[in-house]
Write a structure and sequence with these properties.
The protein is of the alpha+beta class. Helices cover 25% and strands 28% of the residues. It is elongated.
Length: 152
């Protein structure tokens, strides 16, 4: 084998290694990415509802609302009690109302109170004029939306 052929093999091996490393870094980055929304979207105090579809087809629903105390809050569109019905919440004034049982929750309490029929809190940050939610945090709400077998 000539020296030139050995150099070509080494170069090809090096390029393959770089491509594999790049693919690995991209995969890791994709799993830990963020979802961002302009903070100005929520200035009117109206809840905005969003969905995130997982790779295996589960649709995770959540909402973001600016409460009357000026805090932008986020929560899953489900709770610990009524989630199997898959109905979520609707906004009526300064309250989020469960579409299944009718209980009302002040928007100022979203993310503050959890458990029972309270909207399941979803971590978020407000930075640089954006509301930032980590995809990993969205995925934590999967249990509310994997409805296979939830209804008898």
């Amino acid at each position: 084998m000539s020296v030139q052929n050995i150099r070509r093999i080494i170069l090809a091996s090096f390029i393959c290694t770089l491509l594999i490393a790049g693919a690995f870094v991209s995969a890791v980055h994709a799993q830990s990415s963020d979802v961002t929304y302009p903070e100005s979207t929520f200035k009117d105090g109206k809840a905005r509802f969003y969905q995130y579809k997982t790779k295996d087809g589960i649709t995770i629903k959540y909402f973001i609302v600016k409460s009357t105390d000026g805090v932008i809050r986020s929560a899953f569109d489900a709770c610990d009690v009524c989630w199997p019905e898959g109905k979520g919440y609707e906004q009526k004034g300064d309250f989020m109302v469960c579409r299944n049982c009718g209980k009302k929750f002040a928007t100022t309490r979203v993310m503050e109170v959890q458990g029972g029929c309270n909207p399941g809190p979803l971590a978020r940050k407000v930075e640089g004029g954006n509301v930032v939610i980590k995809v990993d945090d969205i995925l934590k709400g999967r249990r509310y939306f994997d409805l296979k077998g939830a209804k008898s």
